[in-house]
Amino acid sequence: MTKTFALLLTVFLTMSIPGQQLNTFFSTLSKNNMFNGSAVVSQPGKPIFSDQYGFSNIEKKEKFSDQSQFPIASVTKTFTSTAILQLKEKGKLKMDDSVQKYLPDFPYPTISIKNLLNNTSGLADYYNLFDILLKEQPEKIISNQDIIPTFIRFKTPLTFEPGSKWEYNNVNFCIAALIIEKVSGMSYATYLEKNIFSPAKMKNSFVPNDRKIKKINQVELYTYPNLYSTGLVNINTVKDPFPIAAKSNFYGNGGIVSTALDLEKYQKTLFSHQILGKKELEEALTATILNDGKKVTYPIDGKEVSYGLGWFMYTDESKGKIVFHDGSIHGLTSILAHNIDKNQSVILLFNMGNSPVFSILNAVLPLIDHRPYTIPAQNLSRIYGSLLENGNKEKANLLIKEHLKNPNGYEATERDFNRLGYQFLRNGKGENSLQTFSSATLLFPKSWNVYDSYGEALLQSGKKEEALKMYQKSVELNPENKNGKEMISKIEG
């Protein structure tokens, strides 16, 4: 073997191995029912990794293709931000301009465009904003044009002074979309097609006029009907947890339909400054500072993040500056992440709700960096809950015992078990609820909250003496637990 050939072989293997590892990684997740969708990973000097796993239509066993289109949910917010910043770059608006300058009926004079894009406006979100309107007009489909009139009609107060606090809010980006339309003189959908989709050659992306009408390549969406289900069901068979979702057609906050490969084209065009200047992009990716001088930060999946203009950023930049936006709607999870320093991108589109998107992202990033990584494990509480629901109490108990011996086999969190216990309780499955909270005390013996929850479930089941012991244990672990103290007084009194 010549030295030249050996060198070429080494280079080829170096380029190929990450792709092989990624395929093994996603195949494993797919077999464990943790990934059903499309994945794209790109990095300098290597072929774009693009593949699909599972089915676009589970009932018909139809597989995904490169043209499979997904709603991308809140990843749309990065497009809305880009559009506003394009208009700013052209001198059509300023970030500190009052929203009222462009939308005169907007009833809050102190809110700026920047407040919208960095989620510091203090506006009320839309989840309960239209309850009365929907009762008056049950057939009405609510859209962006209904937001300002509703604010005016009900004199909806701000939840906080603009710029004083950060609060994730879909309405901010709906209002921003109205500004794009007013300033550009074209619809939001047309503006994106002309100024982002077309320049980026995103031929499989669009903003639908009606989100309820699917195009031929759009995937079906699936979800777990409850926390103790292991089988996905089509979202058409279950109610959306947010009633407004079925009665609305908002855009700007979400709504774009796209493919993973189209999103890769978008990020490539955006981060090479082809559709937005360097100065404006840096502005979008700069952490928000509140009125009191504090930087906006909070945790996501154990990592601290900040927020710019339509973009999240990890505050730890030791492995490069990583920016992202995720999205979640009924039956869908999405994320677009980009490491600016290393020019690496990860795009994940799942046609299943409540997927472990951050666990997967936080494994893919070190994988493509040739650093140690761990494939995300299955959710222990879901499998445990399914065993209880199906009458396999002994197997469920054995599962807990095995996990205590080997905690690396499954992902187990206090929050998941707490939610599972309460869902069993709400659904009238008292014994399963008690069993769940009992197991939670074994898994999280130092959690005062678990004992407090167990006490509540026992009390609702009429087991006062046992409930008292749980509340006492909770207060012992956390002497500041006011609820525990109050419940102890009530039981003993």
Any key phrases for this structure?
two-stranded antiparallel ribbon, 16 strands, globular, eight-stranded antiparallel β-sheet, 18 helices, disordered N terminus, alpha+beta, 493 residues, single chain
Largest sheet: 8 strands, antiparallel
Question: What is the 3D shape?
Answer: globular
Distance between the termini: 88 Å
Main structural class: alpha+beta
How are the strands of the largest sheet arranged? 2-1-14-13-12-11-10-9
Number of strands: 16
**What proportion of the residues form beta strands (DSSP E)?**
5-15%
Task: Summarize the amount of helix as a percent range.
Answer: 40-55%
Count every helix, treating DSSP H or I runs of 4 or more residues as helices: 18
Question: What does the secondary structure layout of this molecule look like, with pairings?
Answer:
Elements: H1 3-31, E1 37-42, E2 49-53, E3 55-57, E4 62-63, E5 70-71, H2 76-89, H3 113-117, H4 131-136, H5 147-154, H6 170-184, H7 188-197, E6 222-223, E7 233-234, H8 243-246, E8 257-258, H9 260-271, H10 278-284, E9 298-300, E10 303-307, E11 312-314, E12 322-329, E13 332-339, E14 344-350, H11 357-368, E15 378-379, H12 380-389, H13 393-405, E16 410-411, H14 414-426, H15 430-443, H16 448-460, H17 464-477, H18 482-492
Parallel strand pairs: 15-16
Antiparallel strand pairs: 1-2, 1-14, 3-4, 5-8, 6-7, 9-10, 10-11, 11-12, 12-13, 13-14
Helix pairs in contact: 2-6, 12-13, 14-15, 14-16, 15-16, 16-17, 17-18
